[in-house]
Design goal:
The complex is a heterodimer of chains A (81) and B (479). With 81 residues, chain A is mainly alpha-helical. Helices cover 56% and strands 0% of the residues of chain A. Chain B folds into 2 domains: 178 residues, no CATH class; 212 residues, no CATH class. Helix content of chain B is 71%, strand content 0%. The longest helix of chain B has 33 residues. The chains are: A mainly alpha (81), B mainly alpha (479). The interface between A and B is medium-sized, with 12 and 19 residues.
Amino acid sequence: MNIKEVLEPIFRQVFDDEQIKLAAEMTADDVDGWDSLSHVNLIVAIESKLKIRFTQKELLTFRCVGDLMRASAEKAGLPVA
Amino acid sequence: MFFNSFEYLFFLPLVFLLFYVTPGRFRWSLLLWASLLFYSALGSWYLLLVLSAVAILTYAAGRLLGLASTETHKRLILWAGILGNVAILVAMKYLTFLADSAQFVVGLFSGQYEAPHLALLVSIGVSYYVFQAISYLNDIYLEIEQPEDHFGYFFLYLAFFPKLMQGPIERAGDLLPQLKKPYHFDYDNMRFGALLFATGLFKKVVIADRLGIYVNAVYGDLASFSGLPLLAATYVYAFQIYFDFSAYTDMALGAARLFNIRLTDNFNSPYLATSIADFWRRWHITFSRWILDYIFKPLQMRWRNAGSVGIAAALLVTFLVSGLWHGAGWGFIIWGLLHGLFMGCSVFYKPYQKKLHGRLGLVKTTRLKVWQVFVTFNLVCFAWIFFRADTMADALYVVQHLFVFSGNQNLLFSGFREYELAIVLIGTASYYACRYIYTRRVDLFESKVWLRWGIYYYICLIAVLFCVKRASGFIYFGF
C-alpha cells in the first residue's frame, strides 16, 4: 500500500467529499472547505492513522499535498506512489 | 517629513533624479542614504540607532542561522534574534504602558507604588521593520529564504523609505530581489507611480482628513453627544481610518514604483468582507498575513490535539498580539480581543451556520452576501470604537450611548456642515469614478490625451483646492 492510498480516504472523510483525488500539486485552494479547522482535523487524522507525529517545522513548511505526502511516507516508511 | 508634506514633494522627485543619474552599482547606496535621511527628518535622533540595531542584530542572526548545522543551534539563534527584536520593540513602545499598568495593579492592593516616570519615546516605524526582521529570520529557519550576504541590501530591505514608517510589511523573498535587480527606466512605471501617489494624496487631504474633522469633534467632546451623532461618528471613523491608511499605502506603492519596486497592496475592499476572517484577508493584508504565518499557524499546530478549542485559543492569542502591536493601550487590546472573540466564536458556530444556510436555500445567494457584509461591517465598526476612543471610559461612554436618542440629534454641527459633507461625497464619488475608468474601462496610458490629462488635472486641482488646511499625520504612523 502506498501513501496516496492511505491518505485519500482520510481526505475524503475530513472534507466529506468522496470525489477527492489526491495530486501532488494540490493545495488548500483546490479543496472546498479546507480551512483552519479542517486543516487541523486533517493533520490529527493523518497522525492518528499512521501513528506518526509531524514536527512544528514540517507542519509550517508544507506548501502542497505533495509535501504532506512525502513527509507522511517518510515517517510511516511507506512508498509515495 | 510626512508623505503629505511639502518637504516630501521636493524630497521624492529629488531622490528619483539622483537615483536616475547615479551609476547602477551605487544606486542601492543612494536609496539607503536617502532612507536614513528621511528617517532622521523625524527629529528623534535615537530612531536611526534603533533601526541600525535591528538591522545589525537581524543580519548577524540570519548569517549565523545559515551557518548553524544542528536543529538545536538553529532554534537557539532564531529565538535569540526574535527576542532581541522584541526587546527593542518593547523598550521603544511599551515600557511606559507596562510601568503605568504595574502601578495600577499594585495600587489596587497597597496604593503605595508609584511607577518610575518614563518619557514616551517616538517609535514611528519600529513596529513595522521589527516585524519584517522577525519574518526574515523565520523564513531562513524554515528554509524558505537564504540569508542575505550583502549588509547594504539587507539594511535597505528594512529601511526603504516608501515603506519605512507605515509598511507594507514586506517579505524578504518579495523585496530583496527587486532591490538587487538592475534599474532600467520604465516610463509606464514612472507615470503609474506618480498617478498612484497623487490619488493617495487626494484620498488623504480631501477625504480622510475631512472625515477626521467630524470624528475628532465628536470624540473630543463626547459628553455633548449621544444617539445619532455617536452612531454617525462610529461609521465615519470606519471610513476615515480606511481612507487614511489606504491613502498612505497608495502613496507608498506609488513612490516605490518610481524606482521599479512593486510593494504589496494592503487593501482589497475590506468593508465588502462577508465575515471577520474575510475582513482580515482584505484589511492591512501584509500585517494579517504576518500574524497568520508567524503566530496563528504555529499556535494552531502546537495546540492541534485540542481541536476547535485549540484553534479558538490560537485566534484569541493572535489577535491579542495584533491589538498590542497597534499600541500600548487598553483600547487597542480590547479591540484586538474583540476580533479574536469574533473569529474564535465562528470556529464553533460555522459548521451549524453552513447547514442552516443550506436548509434555507441561501448558499451563494445575493441576499445572504448582503446580510453578511452588513453584519461584518457593523461588527468591525463596533470594534473600532475601542480603537479610536482616547480612554476606556470614553469607549464605554460611546457604547452605552449609541442608542440613547436624547438631546441634540443633529448630524451636522459647526465645523462640519453641508459644505464639508458635499466635499466628502463628491470627492469620494469622483475618486471611485476615476479609479473605475482607469482600472476597468480604459488603459489610461493608451487613452486619449484629454481623458488622461483631464484625470491628472482633476485629481491635482481638487486636492489643492479642497485639501483640509490643517496638515495631519497618518493614523497608522502611531503604530
